[in-house]
Amino acid sequence: MVLITGAARRIGAAIARALHADGCNVLIHARGSIAEAHALVSELNAARADSATALCADLREAAQIERLAAAAHARWQRLDALVNNASTYYRTPFGSIGAEQIDDLLATNLRAPLLLAQACAARLADGGSIVNIIDAQARHGVPGFAPYIAAKAGLWTLTQTLALELAPRLRVNGVAPGHMVWATSTALSAAEQARELQRVPLRRLGGADEVARAVRWLLSADAAYVTGVVLPVDGGLRLS
Known about the structure:
Layout: E1 2-4, H1 10-21, E2 26-30, H2 34-47, E3 52-56, H3 62-76, E4 81-84, H4 99-121, E5 129-133, H5 146-166, E6 171-177, H6 190-198, H7 208-219, E7 230-233
Parallel strand pairs: 1-2, 1-4, 2-3, 4-5, 5-6, 6-7
Helix pairs in contact: 1-7, 3-4, 4-5
């Protein structure tokens, strides 16, 4: 039983489908995309009955995080893994950054993963795992995205800290995607997309399935001795 936040579409949905195909029951969290979440749940339950459910919560609200963790465990009376995938991402040019933007980006990209990990930890079965979806550029300067990058850099360090805090009962790892799918909140022109791809040694988008495969491996028995690792899945972007 795996709880995946922000799993109604895009990378989150790919993670849900990959884990479900491996036999996991999945809890599909969404905030605004609840219709897409229910559609995905219907798709997965058609493939295997009573194997998926949708849960709605605003991860910016601490009380809703606790309720989400309780509901996730109550659904099948068990929870084996948490994937912190939900994220807010948009441009914040220096000089026009407001406190509300900082609070919003920190809340979804750092505070919520920490509070949800804390809420789920006692409910996770022994040997369970947490995987945080970070960003391959989190340890590099990215002009125009200061609050987002700061939050993801914090999540990177938090992943390592929680690996120590929750060992030996639980493992905590991260996946750091590069350019996988183009963001919808910060649209790039064709020329801008081409320039970004020139920065990627493999010269292409990774795609959501690449992240899903990395998450699936980190949750599997093959990674049973792996904790505190942040695995880049970026086509070499971090090297450029």
